[in-house]
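tool_call predict_complex ligand=tryptophanyl-5'AMP
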Amino acid sequence: MTRIFSGVKPTGHLTLGNYLGAVRQWVAAEQKPDEALFCVVDLHALTVEHDPARVRRLSRQAATLLLAAGLTPEKCTLFVQSHVDEHARLSYLLECTASDGELRRMVQYKEKAAKAQASGEGVRLSLLTYPVLMAADILAYRTGEVPVGEDQRQHVELTRDLAVRFNQRYGYTFTVPKATHPVVAARVMDLQDPTSKMGKSGDTGPGVVFILDEPEAVRKKVMRAVTDSGDGGVVYDPAARPGVSNLLDILAACTGGEPTALADGYTGYGALKRDVADAVVELLRPVRVRHAELAADPGTVEAVLRAGAGRARAIARPVVDEAYRAIGLLEP
Ligand code: TYM
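tool_result ok
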């Protein structure tokens, strides 16, 4: 059995990038409740300036959206990170395994720390230790595979390093996990700034398609997407033509095609954009409809999360207890 674990942070509304890069893979991966676990990582949302009511609202919305996207509570465990104490308990042991230097080298830390500093907020210590908590999320379940977008590759690498180091020093405790990425759209780019990732807390609202956007809003954003300077035609070349290539990636991910082959079918940007808009609207339509149904019944979502937390705890507790013993702590 290969256990699968992944998570999403409630720091904004979920985007097309989250959907294509991660959530769709999760729906395909769910098998049995103790083999596939998906988590709304609310503790991670506290690592940057946050509004408590908004985090609570976004946590509920993320869980509802994951169910609407097709996760089924019979086949996976869906839960909220803060409901299972083992994540924070294990995180401390891993802080005692990681070094300050390796955390400061994390690309996402450097980017987010620079942003927090520039805005005058100051950098929360938890932003530095963010990847350690993420490692705890993964290792507490002896996870084998972590389906994520490309941007999480470095964090999963660090998780592997920490698992190996812990096992070597204190005896075999953790499975060493590996990241898995989708073949296309592992890094969906912002439609207005195709050299930056499409992010839920991104600054360029018009460049970000949210899963719950109305079809008209999706169309408007896609039709206004930037398509690189010069008239090089429709060519798939992510380095030289990031705007057009991003649209081709999105189309390929929505239709199951291949970006280079798709490019051959277009002579102009207008037709490409119309097809991308149609494909995205059709892909997201059932998710939006199901989300509206589920949001009208919050009791059901709460019950799923409560049951999910119980199952997650039952898996994580013995693993984390074993890590406590291995590292030299006296049993209570
Ligand atoms: P988060 O919340 O930023 O994103 C959730 C998932 O969506 C993927 N993703 C993308 N994929 C393709 N293109 C994009 N533009 C795009 N934007 C986001 C992310 O790669 C991710 O898979 N650190 C994690 C949350 C986390 C986690 C974990 C993940 C915490 N603990 C344990 C896996 C395992 C994050 O910030 O994801």
